[in-house]
Write a structure and sequence with these properties.
The structure holds two protein chains of two kinds.
Chain A: E1 5-7, H1 12-19, E2 24-27, H2 31-38, E3 46-49, E4 58-60, E5 64-68, H3 73-78, H4 80-85, H5 87-94, H6 99-104, H7 107-111, H8 162-169, E6 173-177, E7 183-187, H9 188-191, E8 210-217, H10 220-223, E9 225-230, E10 241-250, E11 253-262, E12 269-270, H11 272-278, H12 285-292, H13 307-324
Parallel strand pairs in A: 1-3, 2-3
Antiparallel strand pairs in A: 4-5, 5-8, 6-7, 6-8, 9-10, 10-11, 11-12
Chain B: H1 8-17, H2 27-32, H3 34-38, E1 46-52, E2 55-61, H4 67-74, E3 93-96, E4 99-102, E5 115-117, H5 130-137, H6 147-160, H7 166-172, H8 183-197
Parallel strand pairs in B: 1-5
Antiparallel strand pairs in B: 1-2, 3-4, 3-5
Helix pairs in contact in B: 5-8, 6-8
Classes of the chains: A alpha+beta, B alpha+beta.
């Protein structure tokens, strides 16, 4: 790991001013950044420690719940209001990483963990995301974990955040403070960008941008929701395929549906076509199977991950059954 | 007594010194090792005070030093183990303000003012912690390298209230890998220790 210096500003504006210095980066939980620094994928010369910022509280309102960006994943997952009114969010967080890492990782930092594949983590290989223009060995190499939606000829890495998938499904948004001191709201669905020919940029954030809070709107679909994660081992592993589903059910009929999937897209993937196929339909397995069959619309597998096209509707049906139960 | 001074670390160090064929660490290895590199760059050193196992520990470390390296290489607390050094294996698990974290992904300078507990600080009043006793009773280890991390994780798991079933114990111990595969005995030890505490 490179030599570095660390500062701990007392407020957001000071933190933003500090991070605008060359080769600087924010550090919150640090669980992703520290790994990337040890592997010399990220090489900041100066870290801006966010621990002193007052962004570690959860506020419960009638219209939704707000998490400060520094709220730890473990704490939000266990918050009674999250467990009761946003169960898919709690489930997605508890399916993430390990207990130790969830005690470290933050709500804001989780959303900003790097989209990655095996090659991104190893500077011995080319990678357009790590070294723009160097090439993508994954496209014809080890790509079992890769994305099948939103890929480009330059990058097929899938976004690893479980939390982001749940937040996209529920229409959550982040509040971002920028270099000019102004704050703006960005839907989590719009936070991550497609790789295109600039896969080095995972999100739409620009230097100086700081996520301050994450807001999740309350809804009947959020209250009746489930997160299903399929992976190569039972715990502490990224998703091969995951499904976040929320259902608003009125007397056996689906009034509203919220659906997003993870492990399959270069960004957390919203599924509006599946939602449309569920609305107004009875809560039957026939409805679930018909809607889930639409999940793979536009999907393009790589050489090793065509299995994801079969796994996606199955994971989705299971999540729908779980939410409806 | 001489045997009281005999530690695994001392024994290994002595063995290495006696083997002339072992290659010395080259410059590349030194550059990758914060401890070795610190001697060459004193201007980067930062004075910090850590609260470890109820004691004040004053250290002069590089800001990039992990809590794991600070504990092992600077504070002389080698009970905390370095496995993957990437947060995947859990061998380096310690408690910071009562919560289990992986010390390899924690920067030491960021833990100033927080209460750090390592495996050396888990036992109290001369007796073993119930989880330590249960690991002995159930033979919850083979080589023992992952054991300090397993025990620190298990002690936290019980405090968190996640020892309700074997299934729950397995899920909440998933941040700790045992290469020897002592998992069934580890689960038995955690179950037993949780029952005693109840």
């Amino acid at each position: 790991m490179r030599q570095l210096t660390i500062s701990r500003p007392a407020d957001a504006d000071a933190a933003i001013a500090a991070v605008l210095a060359p080769e600087s980066a924010f550090i919150a939980g640090g669980s992703d950044l520290m790994q990337l620094m040890k592997d010399q994928v990220e090489n900041p010369a100066h870290l801006v420690d966010l621990d002193a910022l007052p962004l570690a509280t959860v506020t419960v309102g009638a219209d939704g719940i707000t998490a400060g960006a520094l709220v730890r994943m473990a704490d939000f997952a266990a918050h009674p209001a999250v467990v009761r009114d946003y169960p898919m969010v709690s489930q997605a967080l508890l399916a993430s990483a390990s207990p130790q890492v969830r005690n470290m990782g933050t709500m804001g930092g989780n959303l900003l963990q790097r989209t990655r594949c095996l090659y991104f983590r190893d500077p011995g290989f080319a990678c357009n995301k790590r070294a723009p223009g160097s090439g993508c060995p994954a496209i014809h190499g080890e790509n079992r974990s890769g994305a099948v939606l939103g890929t480009s000829p330059d990058c097929i890495a899938s976004n690893p955040s479980d939390l982001a998938v749940a937040l996209v499904a529920l229409g959550a948004a982040v509040q971002v403070r920028g270099a000019n001191g102004a704050t703006r709201r960005i839907a989590v669905a719009d936070l991550h960008r497609l790789p295109g020919n600039t896969p080095d940029a995972d999100t739409v954030l620009v230097p100086g941008d700081l996520i301050e809070t994450v807001f999740i709107p309350a809804s009947e679909a959020a209250r009746r929701s489930a997160y299903v994660k399929i992976r190569d081992r039972a715990s502490f592993e990224f998703a091969l395929v995951s499904a976040a589903v929320g259902l608003d059910i009125d007397g056996g009929t689906i009034r509203d549906a919220r659906v997003a999937m993870g492990g399959v897209g270069t960004k957390p993937w919203a599924m509006p076509q599946v939602e449309a196929a569920l609305r107004g339909k009875p809560t039957t397995d026939a409805t679930f199977h018909a809607a889930a069959a639409l999940a793979t619309d536009g999907a393009q597998p790589a050489s090793q991950n065509a299995f994801k096209l079969k796994l996606m509707p199955r994971a989705l049906v299971r999540a729908l059954q779980s939410a409806a139960a | 007594m001489a045997e009281n001074r005999l530690t695994r670390r001392g024994l290994l160090a002595g063995t290495a010194a006696g083997v002339a064929a072992l290659p010395a660490l080259g410059p590349a290895a030194a550059a990758d090792n914060p401890v070795a590199a610190s001697a060459a760059s004193p201007s980067l050193l930062q004075d910090v005070v850590l609260q470890v196992n109820g004691r004040r520990v004053a250290l002069s470390i590089e800001p990039r030093t992990s809590l794991l390296d600070a504990l092992r290489e600077q504070a002389g607390l080698t009970g905390t183990k370095k496995g993957c050094d990437r947060g995947s294996c859990g061998a380096c698990t310690v408690h910071v303000d009562g919560r289990r974290v992986v010390s390899c992904l924690t920067l030491a300078v960021r833990t100033q003012g927080r209460a750090i507990t390592t495996i050396e600080g888990l036992a109290h009043a001369g007796g073993l912690h119930p989880v330590q006793a249960a690991f002995l009773k159930h033979d919850g280890f083979q080589c023992g390298y992952c054991t300090p991390g397993q025990i620190m994780s298990a002690a936290a798991l019980i405090e968190e209230g996640h020892a309700g079933s074997d299934m729950e114990i397995r899920e909440w111990m998933s941040g700790n890998i045992c290469r020897c595969g002592a998992y069934s005995n580890i689960v038995a030890a955690v179950r037993d220790a949780a029952g005693e505490g109840a």
